[in-house]
Amino acid sequence: MDGSRNKLLIKFFSLLIMMSFMVISSRVAGQQPQNEYSDEELITFIRAAREVMPLQQESQMRMIEVIEDEGLSVERFNMILEAHGMGEEIDISEDEMNAFHSALERVQEVQAEYEERIFDTIDDQGMDPKRYLAIFADYQQDPELQMRVNQLMQEKEEN
User: Fold this and answer.
1) Is residue 127 within 8 Å of 48, Cβ to Cβ?
2) What would the pLDDT profile of 45-88 be if each residue is shown by its tens digit?
3) Of the candidates 125, 128, 133, which has an alpha carbon nearest to the alpha carbon of residue 18?
4) Is residue 151 within 8 Å of residue 46, measured between CB atoms?
5) Residue, of 33 and 88, whose pLDDT is higher
6) Which residue, 54, 45, 68, 48, is CA-closest to 139?
7) I need a labelling partner for 17 at 20 to 30 A (CA). Which of 25, 55, 100, 152 fits?
């Protein structure tokens, strides 16, 4: 495998983990990660993350469809969501606010559906979802762990 493809895979894998973390983090918030992981556990983590990726992509597409079905652009939805979350006033019509609330409710339903599927997928790969999240949290913060995971991923690609 050439170096540029390997770098692309590593970046893509990092993005995958970040996206899957966003979907499932609400369910296990507050868990404290541990820093000791065996190679076998990290390989299971990599395998689970690879299985989660298509689900994450599918959930994002469904959420975009839901938002657009309500007559909002994703950008406008996010702008309203951010302002609403920060308690800021925003210039918005009653119709647009109704569309936003309907889209938000439907997006949350899609998120809950996929969250369950993602947890089941992680579990099916032989990993506890809380442990998956612990590894992910450490992966985001620990350059040594990032190197270890990336090296294991590269070795799996070469075999």
Assistant:
1) yes
2) 999 999 998 998 999 899 999 999 999 999 899 889 888 888 88
3) 133
4) no
5) 88
6) 45
7) 100
d(CA 51, CA 45): 10
CA angle 51–141–57, rounded 5-degree value: 25
- Cα distance between residue 118 and residue 72, in whole Å: 27
Q: What is the DSSP letter of 126?
A: T
- Residues 26 and 59: beta-carbon distance below 8 Å: no
Q: What is the pTM of this model?
A: 0.67
Contact 70, 99 (CB under 8 A): yes
Instruction: Single out the residue of 139, 122, 105 nearest to residue 27, CA to CA.
Output: 122
